[in-house]
Amino acid sequence: MSSISVTPHLVRINNLEIDDEETVKIMNEVEEKDLEQYVIKSINIGLSVLRNQMTTEKIDYVEKEFKRLLGEIEDRADDWDDLITDSMTDSLNPEKEGKPINMLRTSILTELTKLRDIIMKKEGAMEESVKGTMKGFDFEDEIIEDMMMWQKYSDSFEKIGDVAEGKTRRKVGDVLATMENGMTIAMEAKAGSNYSDTGDKSLDTQMDQSMAYRDSSGAIAVTTVDAMEDKRWQNSIFLDRGKNRFIVAVDRENEDFTILRLAYMLLRERILASTKTDELPSQRTIDPKQIREITDDIVRDMSSATKMRQILTDVEGRINAMRDEISTYQSKIQGRIDELNALL
Length: 344
Fold this sequence. Notes:
Blueprint: E1 3-6, E2 11-14, H1 21-28, H2 35-91, H3 100-150, E3 156-159, E4 164-165, E5 170-171, E6 175-178, E7 184-189, H4 203-214, E8 218-224, H5 225-230, E9 238-242, E10 245-250, H6 258-274, H7 288-343
Parallel strand pairs: 7-8, 8-10
Antiparallel strand pairs: 1-2, 3-6, 4-5, 6-7, 9-10
Helix pairs in contact: 6-7
């Protein structure tokens, strides 16, 4: 058995024997004087080759490990990509509560809703104003038609409410009645509830302005029973506001303009009676006091009739409600009877 010792500067091999057939064959071809150097050279070359081979194996191992690590990184990168994609998709989902995009969407929608509400309020106010104006125009036509059909005089009635006056372009008067002597009565038609007892929208103020602008001797503000019920201060279908100004509430729904006719008759006779006799054409006049007494009686009767109509409407509503309640109980009773029949 051979022994091999290695020092920092020397390798010693004792009793080395090699029985490899190829090696023996090669060594036999070498001259005896060169054998030692040949063996040493062969060992040196062989060791270098072996070392290089080992290095190559290590490189191959490192390369394989690197490729394996690269593969794992690529796999994880795919997972990370999926994770990032899922996370971004989740974060950008506008329907998922608590996410930034959802919070932004909610905030935008809230602001849009506020803006929409503001626009709708303004549009609603404009639409209501237009509707009220158009309703007023229709009301003016109804007033003129009724007065023309009823009147016993030769007075004329014309619609002037769509004519704007002054720098403010405000309507002044809606219907103008002209008597034979040229004196006029201005009428304010208020089909809606856009008027009040005091302030700029008060009927007194509007009648004063109409009389002043039209140089009229009197004015009548014509409202409706429905509007009167909404106004707590307008407690009668006929109000005498003084200075030849009346406020009346007609039953527009039932096309009953009787109170307007009476108010016009009373105001007309009052105006004529207050005019000097020599300025009037020869004609028969009526005592305004008598007309006022008759008017007061009619107002009381019409107010009572209006209240009775409201009571009848209320009673009818209650009867219908009772019918509905009876029908409900009948249905319940029939249901219980059906249950009993099912048990028998």
